[in-house]
């Protein structure tokens, strides 16, 4: 008999039986179901199961939070139910039948950027390390950085830029490829199109503002500026989707015998032409407008309040899954300004969730059962993954979640007052300090301290108030 045998049998029953399940898969902490009739689900009974931390419906899927042992639970569920486990992509596609148009757009954007996140995180950490050795004046009475006194570390600094440049300057290649992969188009052609956005033949996007003149292609009747779109996300998205739909059109009109020739030609050449005449300039402008709006909010006289609201609301976005759609804003700020002061607030929100759990652990320090759930959740949040904390402890008990929201809001305010800026998106939680720009590291340490102390203290205080009774109901 498996470890979760009883809970698995009851879960199947409470889901409305095997016949009510269209598809099932799992991720790091959650079981994900696509149900034929969601109204047949006994949610209260499911949430009362010992193995279940929380449930919610998002992106057309009924999701059951199990925690780090979800893979074991999933295997027992498959064995008991007789269902065939589906891939995450298959489940997502099935779930979209239950989604609105807006939800489908959000889901598609999230899926496009998900494969890019590991590279972006590594790049952020490397940029942070380059800041430490290249920008922080720690030697010779604070007048020189490590790279200025060491040939070896200067070489390391230069070498690491090779990786960082590949990740961030050439990010449009990854975006177009990801769109092609997501939409079922030719991925190699997608890569080629992406490269045409960042080719060395073009004027680098970072050099456009200060350029005395911009090179161009002269077609006699028209001139097209040879501008690159390094690190530009929105132009790459527009170009990617244009390629996908042109390829689909080309397949419809091309005879089968010559599709291998006609389809790549009719999808590649027009897409690249549109990229440099219409889509690129429009996408660049849209990106500038978005970055300007965000900058205006953060840089206004109420910027501190804007940051506080953002810090308070971000964990709520995590619950809905909408937080993935904020990544393009960070990337656009990085492309426009050379850094982001939005993502550091996100990392503080991660820390605040972990600190609220830490406060809960302190309160329940005599309960072995509670600590089995809370300790791994706390560690996970401090390393940037907050779902175990949010669903396993904080939201379930309410008062730690409120304490975390207030803590991340206050930390966000202080972060904006110092204009704490990161080179890039990186690992959330405590390791976020490695992604910060050199002059922001010390102020950000203060912000991190706030995100640790405030939620911890508030969790203990709230536990002695009526807020504690809300969770008990």
From TrEMBL:
Transmembrane stretches, start-end: 112-133, 159-180, 187-207, 227-246, 258-284, 304-329, 341-361, 373-391, 398-421, 441-463
Active site positions: 27
Top EC class for this record: transferase
Major location (coarse): membrane
Occurrences of domain PTS EIIB type-1 (ranges): 5-87
Keyword annotations: Cell membrane, Kinase, Membrane, Phosphotransferase system, Sugar transport, Transferase, Transmembrane, Transmembrane helix, Transport
EC number: 2.7.1.201
GO biological process: phosphoenolpyruvate-dependent sugar phosphotransferase system
Protein's UniProt keywords contain Nucleotide-binding: no
Ranges of residues in domain PTS EIIC type-1: 107-473
Topological relation to the membrane, as annotated: Multi-pass membrane protein
One GO MF term: protein-N(PI)-phosphohistidine-sugar phosphotransferase activity
Entry keyword annotation includes Metal-binding: no
Record CDD domains: PTS_IIB_glc
NCBIfam families referenced in this protein's UniProt entry, alphabetically: PRK11007.1, PTS-IIBC-Tre
Protein name, entry field: PTS trehalose transporter subunit IIBC
Lineage start: Bacteria, Bacillati, Bacillota, Clostridia, Eubacteriales
């Amino acid at each position: 008999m498996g470890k979760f045998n009883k809970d698995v049998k009851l879960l199947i029953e409470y889901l409305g039986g095997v016949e009510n399940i269209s598809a099932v898969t799992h991720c790091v902490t959650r079981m994900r179901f696509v149900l034929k009739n969601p109204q047949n689900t006994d949610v209260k009974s499911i949430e009362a199961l010992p193995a279940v931390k929380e449930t919610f419906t998002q992106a057309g899927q009924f999701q059951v939070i199990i925690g780090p042992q979800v893979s074991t639970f999933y295997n027992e569920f498959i064995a008991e139910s007789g269902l065939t486990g589906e891939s995450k992509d298959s489940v997502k596609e099935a779930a979209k039948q239950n989604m609105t148009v807006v939800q489908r757009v959000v889901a598609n954007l999230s899926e496009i950027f998900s494969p890019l996140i590991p590279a972006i995180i590594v790049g952020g950490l490397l940029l942070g390390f380059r800041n430490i050795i290249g920008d922080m004046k720690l030697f010779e009475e604070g007048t020189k950085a490590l790279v200025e006194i060491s040939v070896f570390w200067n070489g390391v600094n230069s070498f690491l830029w090779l990786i960082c440049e590949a990740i961030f300057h050439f990010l449009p290649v990854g975006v177009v490829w990801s769109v092609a992969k997501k939409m079922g188009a030719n991925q190699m052609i997608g890569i080629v199109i992406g490269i045409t956005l960042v080719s060395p033949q073009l004027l680098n996007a970072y050099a456009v503002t200060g350029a005395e003149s911009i090179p161009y292609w002269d077609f006699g009747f028209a001139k097209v500026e040879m501008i690159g779109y390094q690190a530009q996300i929105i132009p790459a998205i527009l170009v990617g989707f244009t390629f996908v739909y042109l390829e689909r059109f080309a397949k419809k009109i091309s005879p089968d015998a010559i599709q291998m020739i006609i389809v790549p030609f009719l999808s590649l050449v027009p897409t690249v032409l549109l990229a440099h005449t219409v889509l690129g300039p429009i996408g660049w402008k849209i990106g500038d407008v978005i970055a300007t709006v965000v900058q205006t909010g953060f840089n206004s006289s109420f910027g501190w309040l804007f940051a506080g609201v953002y810090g308070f609301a971000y964990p709520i976005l995590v619950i809905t899954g909408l937080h993935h759609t904020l990544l393009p804003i960070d990337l656009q700020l990085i492309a426009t300004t050379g850094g982001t002061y939005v993502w550091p607030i996100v990392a503080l929100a991660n820390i605040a969730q972990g600190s609220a759990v830490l406060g809960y652990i302190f309160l329940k320090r005599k309960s072995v059962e509670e600590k089995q759930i809370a300790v791994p959740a706390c560690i996970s949040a401090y390393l940037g993954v907050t779902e175990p904390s949010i669903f396993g402890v904080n939201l379930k008990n309410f008062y730690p979640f409120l304490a975390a929201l207030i803590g991340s809001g206050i930390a966000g305010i202080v972060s904006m007052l110092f204009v704490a800026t990161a080179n890039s998106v990186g690992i959330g939680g405590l390791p976020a300090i490695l992604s910060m720009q050199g002059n922001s590291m010390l102020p950000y340490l203060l912000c991190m301290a706030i995100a640790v102390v405030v939620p911890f203290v508030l969790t203990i205080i709230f536990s002695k108030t009526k807020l504690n009774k809300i969770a008990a109901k």
